[in-house]
Amino acid sequence: xxxxxxxxxxxxxxxxxxxxxxxxxxxxxxxxxxxxxxxxxxxxxxxxxxxxxxxxxxxxxxxxxxxxxxxxxxxxxxxxxxxxxxxxxxxxxxxxxxxxxxxxxxxxxxxxxxxxxxxxxxxxxxxxxxxxxxxxxxxxxxxxxxxxxxxxxxxxxxxxxxxxxxxxxxxxxxxxxxxxxxxxxxxxxxxxxxxxxxxxxxxxxxxxxxxxxxxxxxxxxxxxxxxxxxxxxxxxxxxxxxxxxxxxxxxxxxxxxxxxxxxxxxxxxxxxxxxxxxxxxxxxxxxxxxxxxxxxxxxxxxxxxxxxxxxxxxxxxxxxxxxxxxxxxxxxxxxxxxxxxxxxxxxxxxxxxxxxxxxxxxxxxxxxxxxxxxxxxxxxxxxxxxx
Length: 387
Prior knowledge:
Layout: E1 14-16, E2 32-36, H1 48-61, E3 68-72, E4 82-83, H2 96-110, E5 118-123, H3 125-139, E6 150-156, H4 173-176, H5 183-188, E7 201-207, H6 215-218, E8 228-231, H7 248-255, E9 273-277, E10 286-292, E11 302-306, E12 308-313, E13 316-320, E14 331-334, E15 345-347, E16 352-355, E17 358-361, E18 371-372, E19 374-376
Parallel strand pairs: 2-3, 2-5, 3-4, 5-6, 6-7, 7-8
Antiparallel strand pairs: 1-11, 9-10, 10-14, 10-18, 11-12, 12-13, 13-14, 15-16, 16-17, 17-19
Helix pairs in contact: 2-3
């Protein structure tokens, strides 16, 4: 039976700080966007323009001015701006993980090492290539580059937890690496929210009418719920319904997940002190503290607005311990879970960040390194102002 829902999980716009916290996000539409196509089961030749030119045109109409780079990886690909065979050694029918290694090399050597952050869009298997490139580089695994600077990444109909049931009939090669439970998918799913060198915000898109990638596989990532989007009346290949890149509503929503630039969050007491995740540890319960600004990944914060605001770093959320509203309750890093303990209100007038009716607070106005932040009754002091 066909499900009819225009949009089931509506993901809100993604925003960040640039200076003072603001009520509205203003993405940078001059960002460079790399677009990676999907699996071709019948040949090693894909038309990158056929996949992405319509999407690029719509994004241009929406104000994007940066470079749009169509990335090919089969030897016969055409209408592409770059081919990954120039950046790695792999066979056209090797696993997507081998291609992800080449993508990481391309991104690092062309952009990251030159101080340029990029956004990534991956369609179908291209989404696995994108996610694998960020993860393998973050992990420092053999064959991958050093960590890459990817601010935002969007996957469209990517089989994060495997393609449709019939992919189990694939017994070798690239096709088998897309089947549920494959070795490479198991590797990828060790980290449901991989991070680039300065933090990465992910959005994952699926469709109830996608007969190639089940909708729940397409959003199988450990990211905030409002960044998991499921449409109806979108198909995988464009049969009957338009595919992801040719569906206006999908491209419009995907565009709002691109162009963000994560930034540090500075203390109102001293601009030399920043909100920091202790030792860049991603374990649940890691203290969030004051520390000398060093602009490392532990100090890169992104806000994702959805009525209230979720504040993330290192792929996890700023969290009030135990949802306790008492003065002095510590603030920590925790897996995003959509609870009230992770919902914040940013006041652009007084520069406070409020959660559970209290203000994010530097205890005793102490700016000594390793001072763990807390919540406290809002009192207008500099210890509760953040920039």
